[in-house]
Amino acid sequence: MADRIQTFTTRIFLNDEQAKSKITELEKRITTIRADMDKAHKNKKWDDFNSLKKELDQRTKELNSMRTTAQSVEHVLKNLSSSSVKEIKRTISAINKELTSGSVARNKDDWKFLTEQLERAKKELKKIGDINKGITKSEGWSWLKKLNPRIRSTLI
């Protein structure tokens, strides 16, 4: 049996209009595939049915991935002060991918919006890093002493 390799690519759209139009397009395609699957089932064309099933699975995965990514990026950008470092880093990565993908023209409104969001996320990440450095420098090893009193005797 021949090996099958399927490539699954998800573009991340951070602009609401792009994301909504792509999601709508995928939903329409899924509806069309389901209708075609019903026809193939009624006509007992099992090869067509199976290939449509595979395409349906791929499109559904892509749709779910797009929804999840778009929602998580939007959530992090709206709640930067309460987002985790990992979430902020993922958001920065997603914005960078969108900017380098070539789908956004430089010096357009979308480009400016994305770069502003990128700067906001980077500033928040730097702010968190600065706070952590400040705590570490000011406390020295005292935070470790509080965790384990036996360490106190070895450090003093």
- End-to-end Cα distance, whole Å, is 69 Å
Low-pLDDT runs of 5+ residues are: none
**Whole-number mean pLDDT:** 78
Radius of gyration (Å):
24 Å
Helix/strand/pairing category? mainly alpha
Helix coverage percent:
over 70%
Number of domains: 2
Q: Element order, helices and strands?
A: HHHHHH
Give me the number of helical elements.
Answer: 6
Inertia-based shape: elongated
Percent of residues in beta strands: under 5%
Strand count: 0
- Main beta sheet strand tally, sense and closure: none
Characterize the structure shown.
With 156 residues, this protein is an all-alpha fold. It has 2 domains: 67 residues, no CATH class; 78 residues, no CATH class. The chain is 77% helix and 0% strand. It is built from 6 helices and no strands. The longest helix has 33 residues. The radius of gyration is 24 Å and the shape is elongated. The model has no long low-confidence stretch (mean pLDDT 78).
